Every structure is written in structure tokens, then in C-alpha cells.
């Protein structure tokens, strides 16, 4: 992150995280609160490690990170997180052989310490506790949509069906502003790539299932699989 961007974020959030000095001590300045949150978000360092680096308590780092994340969501999301060029996204997907695609969806499991008594809820199919992160990425592997809060035992498809993205798709808002296109007489809406486990819908694209022998279908699945592999690498 450049210095200019850091202070831009501080200027947006500063008035919301400024605290008054008390007889017990001086308040933590806004730039320090933002810095602690950014370090936590950008690294795998523990709260204790970050706290030691800033001379703070671990609970203070946790509180600052929560506050900054909430404010970024409420205030800064529409100013910082956006698709630079929608047409470029579809054009680049088209060059890879996938017309009118606006993104690819995949999921990953974020390991965590399981809360006492919740082992069954948090344990995923690989046997460790986690939360699921579901995301859509563009042709560069940049995130354009994320959704979490579901525990590791939940199936990816169930999470998708109950996510805000599904509601947006049903309301016709998942196209990110792109129009339908006609290819060989067939109208193709803006679509999102998903793996074979997800349902096939007008705005969702998935590979052919079952025993595929048709050469064209085999070719489609081959190219689709190569692109899905690239998307999965985003989470590595």
C-alpha cells in the first residue's frame, strides 16, 4: 500500500475512530488504529505479535481491526472497491474462449480455533475447523465479490443458495451492468463460472456432467477445467 492511499483511508475514517484523551491516558490516534488493522488484514501475524509491534494490548488490536473493517464496509466500499473496466473483463474472458463472462466463483476454507462445544458445526469434510469464504474473481484474479459467515460443515452449494449473490441473480443484478449478447442466434446473458457441484441457471455456467463423449463437449470441459484451475490458484 502506498503512503498516499494509507493517509487517504485515515482521512475517510479518522473522524469515526478518534477518541478523547482521559485521565487514564492518551487516546490511540486514528492513523495507528488504521495501521494495526491493515497489518492484521494483510498478514497472518497473530494479534499478540501485532500488539507487541505497536506497543498495544491484543484486545486493542482486535477492536481496532473490527472497527476499521466495519467502517470500510459502510463508508469506503463504494469509493475504493470497484471494477475498473467492465468491458475489459468480458473481453479478456472472451479471448480465453468464454463469451460474456463477468467472473468466476469459488470457495476456500479459512482455518480457525474451534469454539468449545461447536466441533460438529465448524469441522469441514477434511476434518479441521474452518469458516468458508466464497468469492467471485475477474479475469485477473481480483476479487469482485466476497461472502462469509458460514461454518466449515456447510456445503458450498447451500452457502451459495443462501448468499446475497443468489438474491441479486434472481433480481437480475448480477450482470454488473453488462448486456446480453447473441452468439449464432442464441442469446447469452452475462454469466458467472462455477464448478460442477453448483446448479445450472441462466446466469451460471458449469462444465458438462456425466460421461461426456461428444468432441465439442470434451473440448469445452477441457478449456473450462484449465480456467477453473487458474481461479482456484487465487486462494493458494
From TrEMBL:
<keyword id="KW-0539">Nucleus</keyword>
<comment type="similarity">
    <text>Belongs to the HARBI1 family.</text>
</comment>
<dbReference type="GO" id="GO:0016787">
    <property type="term" value="F:hydrolase activity"/>
</dbReference>
<dbReference type="InterPro" id="IPR045249">
    <property type="entry name" value="HARBI1-like"/>
</dbReference>
<dbReference type="GO" id="GO:0004518">
    <property type="term" value="F:nuclease activity"/>
</dbReference>
<keyword id="KW-0378">Hydrolase</keyword>
<feature type="domain" description="DDE Tnp4">
    <location>
        <begin position="105"/>
        <end position="235"/>
    </location>
</feature>
<dbReference type="GO" id="GO:0005634">
    <property type="term" value="C:nucleus"/>
</dbReference>
<keyword id="KW-0479">Metal-binding</keyword>
<keyword id="KW-0540">Nuclease</keyword>
<dbReference type="InterPro" id="IPR027806">
    <property type="entry name" value="HARBI1_dom"/>
</dbReference>
<protein>
    <recommendedName>
        <fullName>DDE Tnp4 domain-containing protein</fullName>
    </recommendedName>
</protein>
<dbReference type="GO" id="GO:0046872">
    <property type="term" value="F:metal ion binding"/>
</dbReference>
<dbReference type="Pfam" id="PF13359">
    <property type="entry name" value="DDE_Tnp_4"/>
</dbReference>
